[in-house]
Amino acid sequence: MDMLGEVVVALLIVAGSTFTLVGSIGLVKLPDLMMRLHAPTKATTAGVGGVLLASMLYAFLRTGELSAHELLITLFLFLTAPVTAHLLAKAYLHRHADRVRGLPPACREPGWTTFDPPSAEEAGASHGERPRRPPRV
Fold first, then answer.
1. Which of 38, 49, 86, 136, by CA, is between 20 and 30 Å from 18?
2. Do residues 26 and 43 lie in contact, with contact meaning Cβ atoms separated by under 8 Å?
């Protein structure tokens, strides 16, 4: 195995490990499920993909044959992680949606920047004035 191949394998392992670490920290530190869901599905998937790519390259440089095991694991990971994240997000939104307004709980917290239509009195509709948007937070 040549020196360039070892350097590339080492860089892939370090990059993959860094992505995995960032995704794991995001999973622990972010406040709610919808934010926490983003970290492992993006960063950790890329991190594991980088480590698997390094493993495939290392096996190819050592034996001269392409390893199908790592390729199948990578394919399975990249197909199942987004589907799982989508299903978890849909279940969360379905279970926690406000039945009246149809918004998830994070959108009802103070400081959220969605537009709530003012009542007729607040908008001045009784005086023929055009409704005004509330100031952005």
1. 86
2. yes
Alpha-carbon distance of 1 to 22, in angstroms, equals 31
- Which residue in 96, 13, 22, 101 sits closest to 52, CA to CA? 13
Instruction: Yes or no: say if 98 and 108 are a contact pair by the CB < 8 Å rule.
Output: yes
Closest among 76, 28, 82, 18 to 50, alpha carbons compared = 18
pLDDT confidence band for 134 (50 / 70 / 90): low
What pLDDT is stored for residue 71 in this prediction? Answer: 87
Q: DSSP states of 62-92 as a string?
A: HHSS--HHHHHHHHHHHHHHHHHHHHHHHHH
